[in-house]
Amino acid sequence: MELGLSLGDAPKPFRFVEKQPPVTPRQRRISRPDLGFCVDLSIGRPVAGEKEDDEEKINQRDYESDGNEDPPIQLDLLPHNPVPRNLTNPYQGFPWPSSENDEGEDRTASPNSAASSFQMEFGLYGGGGNISCQREQMENGVIESERASSRASDEDENGSTRKKLRLSKEQSAFLEESFKEHNTLNPKQKLALAKQLNLRPRQVEVWFQNRRARTKLKQTEVDCEYLKRCCETLTEENRRLQKELQELRALKTTDSFYMQLPATTLTMCPSCERVTSTSAGSSGGKSTEAVSKRSGFAITGRPSSSSFPFSA
DNA sequence: ATCATCAGCCCTTTTACTTCA
DNA sequence: CCTGAAGTAAAAGGGCTGATG
């Protein structure tokens, strides 16, 4: 995304770039929602000696094709600290099995991995002492888990028909809590979870895939909102700067008119910040300066204090 | 070094199901 | 109560990548 902040003579209107720079699947894989994002501001000429790998070449082409030859300046807009995850987890301590390969690797291992031997009693296929089913039987007479079970069984029997399986609330909640701890699963975790929930490993895998997709979608929405606000802020700032620039230009025009008159030296008292003027020689060739406190611009050749707006 | 295979992931689409006007 | 549109979630399909033989 590109945000334009124009400060020059011919301000360009803001222009959002619809298409993203090409991202390789590998980069997609590496990217994570908590890593923040950037906004590009185009305000300058290309810097010589910049690295030009393939992607940058592609990006450069994109800018050029849009008629904008300015390379972007990146602004990090998101806080670098990821939003802390709420870990009020009723299922904390799910005994995550770790694969043979990930010993010492914490990416998928639960911090509480060996804490408990908590077991969910779903009994989808067994029925028997299913707490959730008993509760649901009492509440609405519908045994959601058994529905799910029977559908799954149908699918197993028919094979060809794709029956929609609705996961029970308990299954969803447990998967959700698992996802909070690890948004990806290693094969052992997947198998353990599937066994625990009486689901097929493929179902667990698919559920995690879809869950990641939902997370990404939500994050994209959040990012979008944030960028919108940033854009509004920058637009307002741009408007303010444009206005200030116009004022200064107008001031300079007036100033050039007064340049025709005999020069006057303006000085600002550093302590009281008042501007005073002293008349220069009649030759008029000597330029004088005063400092606009507000803008830091140099103003030359001001006439008498009576007509000078900064004078007291 | 190159190729084939496999597993895992992401993205997109399909489809079953739910909700609501 | 019925119905159809809209929304949601589970699942499938295809493409890509890295690991392995």
How would you characterize this protein structure?
With 312 residues, this protein is mostly helical. Among the domains are: 2-79, no CATH class; 259-312, no CATH class. It is built from seven helices and seven strands; from the N terminus they run βαβαβαααααββββ. The protein has a three-stranded mixed sheet with strand order 1-2-3, covered by helices on one side. Strands 4-5 form a two-stranded antiparallel ribbon. Strands 6-7 form a two-stranded antiparallel ribbon. The radius of gyration is 34 Å and the shape is rod-shaped. It binds a DNA duplex (21 and 21 nucleotides) through α1 and α7.
Taking all Cα atoms into account, the compactness measure Rg is: 34 Å
* Helix fraction by DSSP (H/I, runs of at least 4): 40-55%
Helix-strand topology string = EHEHEHHHHHEEEE
Instruction: Give the overall silhouette.
Output: rod-shaped
Strand content: 5-15%
Biggest pleated-sheet summary: 3 strands, mixed
What's the arrangement of strands in the largest beta sheet?
A: 1-2-3
Q: Report the end-to-end length measured between terminal Cα atoms.
A: 48 Å
Mean pLDDT: 53
| Class by alpha and beta content | mainly alpha
The low-pLDDT segments are: 1-161, 279-312
The helix tally amounts to 7
- The count of β-strands is 7
